[in-house]
Amino acid sequence: MKVTVQNKKGLSKDLKVLVDKKTLEKYLNEKYEEVSKTVQLKGFRPGKVPKEILKRQFGKAVYGEVLDKVLKETSTQALSDNKIKPAGQPKIDLKSFGEDKDLEYIISVTELPKIDLKQLENIKADEYDVTIDSKEIDKRINDIAKNQKNFVEVDPAKVANEGDLVAFDYKATVDGNDFKGSEGKNTQLELGKDLFIKGFDKQLIKVKKNETVEVEVTLPENFPEKDLVGKKAKFVCKILSVKKSKEVVINDEFAKNLGAKDLNDLKSLLDKQINEEYKNSLGMITKKQILNQIEKIKIEEIPENLIEQEMKILSQGLKEDDIKSKKKEFETKAKQRIKVGLILNEYGEQNKIKVEENEMQAEVQKQLRMMPGQEKFLMEYYQKNPSAVASLRGNIYEEKIINSIISKSKASRKKISKVEAERLIKEQNEKDLKEVKQSNKSTSEMKTKKADISKKSPQVKKKTAKKVSKK
Predict the structure, then answer these.
(1) Residue 175 — left, alpha, or beta (φ > 0 → left; ψ -120 to 50 → alpha)?
(2) What is 263-426's CATH topology?
């Protein structure tokens, strides 16, 4: 195979490829051998059909398959040998082909630009560690303690009040008749929360242990037995116990009940937990710092075909007039996105960054945890949509590249307070919101201009109509 590079114009170039007829003949002979082993022709044993007969029967089909194979293999090799990374699918123009002839064709290709990653060495980034005040941790522990009420049984002579825990057995009837689920054992209610049947709690105020009381309520709309909805039900309740809330003592025992070794360990765990809560948001700020600097890196030329593809994605759903009016804006944004993508991909390739299967599985599990109750649906969605899985893989790949750049950058680690962290996150959110509003505003302005034109149009038509009617 002989390859000659021609017509260099920036990133676009033509490669003239010549494959001699001996090489083609070798490919053809291999294909005829393969066909001979499988074809069944009357009067010949499998594998014994003469090549000339095969050529008469299957010549055109065989040559077509061989031509496709040779073009694929030689064009790939030609690009590889000349260290050309295509930006999109190359075009092939056949100049000369046929049996007993040399194969000659032209590959027209736009290659990806050369990326100088040395520019990444000057990237600076801020990484954040949130210093949590001990008062914040104490407040978090107190909140946990408040939600972990410790109920203890009191003297049988004491009555139940709001906030107490009452345990009871009951038997219910509607119009004197039992119904499905009309009996309950050791039912427990925290009075005042009204979590059983509306109005039930209030009727247990002032009850004592071992008392039998009658509670009358209207069965609600969500009651399982639909034919009883809206009817009055009588519950005969035997009070088993009355328990009052005892203040939870915050000590080592309390911490152990929460899975910590002791109280100091619990505080350490909560410090990490609060930091984790801010990690993603602060990490996004660091990531945007990196991406903003990458956007400023110069690339001499960006392939036009990639710009066109990206502009189509950006303008999806818009009308042709809107696309034309925002062409420059789309083009600028498309170039930025392509440039960042090219730099990140080149960095990933040079540093041999890959997404491992266990990382994919971990990300899928993370997505499942974010949608409790929808796990089965989400898993089926990923199984049926390879593009969704590819998008996940792309996100992990980008994340690994960004983290690698940060690790090699001139990153400064900053310790900030919880208040400062919240301020930074708020400022970033406001910036993001402003960008979204600005984008929506420009689209809205286009719609307003169209609306003004459409309002004026009927007036013009009316004038024209009057002139016609006079005639």
Answers:
(1) left
(2) Trigger factor, domain 2 (1.10.3120)
How far CA 41 is from CA of 28, 35, 53, 394, 464, in Å, comes to 20, 11, 10, 52, 80
Question: Are the CB atoms for 434 and 152 separated by under 8 Å?
Answer: no
Q: Pull the structure tokens for residue 93.
A: 């123009």
What DSSP string runs through 333-379?
HHHHHHHHHHHHHHHHHHTT----HHHHHHHHHHHHHTSTT-HHHHH
In this structure, the number of other CB atoms found within 10 A of the CB of residue 373 comes to 6
Residues 6+ away with beta carbon under 8 Å from 112: 11, 85, 86, 87, 303, 342
Q: Which two tokens stand for residue 308?
A: 């066109």
C-alpha closest to that of 166 among 237, 242, 244: 242
Q: Rounded to the nearest 5 degrees, what angle is found at the Cα of 35, between the Cα atoms of 38 and 99?
A: 170
Please return the burial class of 146, using the count of CB atoms within 10 Å of its CB with bins 0-12, 13-18 and 19+: exposed
CATH 3.40.640.10 fits 2-110, yes or no: no
What span, in angstroms and rounded, lies between the C-alpha atoms of 152 and 382? 50
pLDDT at residue 173 in the model: 95
Cα–Cα distance measured from residue 250 to residue 141, given in angstroms and rounded to the nearest whole number: 8
Average pLDDT (94-112) is 92
Cβ neighbours for 3, distance < 8 A, ≥ 6 positions apart: 15, 16, 17, 18, 78, 81, 82
Taking 50 as the threshold, does the pLDDT of residue 447 lie above it? no
CA 231 from centroid of its chain's CA atoms: 49
> In which residue ranges of the chain is CATH 1.10.3120 found?
263-426
**Cβ 110 vs Cβ 88: under 8 Å:** yes
> CB–CB of 110/252 below 8 Å?
no
Q: Within 10 Å of residue 450's Cβ, how many Cβ atoms?
A: 13
Backbone angles phi, psi at 442, to 5 degrees: -65, -35
Q: In the chain, which residues fall in CATH 3.10.50.40?
A: 151-246
Q: Mean pLDDT for the chain? A: 86
Q: What are the backbone angles phi and psi of residue 210, rounded to the nearest 5°?
A: 75, 0
If you search the block for the tokens 């009951």, which residue do you land on?
170
Name the nearest CA neighbour of 159 among 235, 213, 233, 198: 213
**Where exactly does CATH 3.30.70.1050 map onto the chain?**
2-110
Instruction: List, for residues 317-366, the tens digit of each pLDDT value.
Output: 888 888 888 889 899 999 999 999 999 999 999 999 999 999 999 998 88
Which CATH topology does 151-246 take?
Chitinase A; domain 3 (3.10.50)
* Residue 61: Cβ within 10 Å count: 11
CA-angle at 144, arms to 140 and 145, nearest 5°: 115
**pTM attached to this predicted model:** 0.64
Q: In this predicted structure, which of 37-41, 256-260, 408-412 has the lowest mean pLDDT? A: 37-41
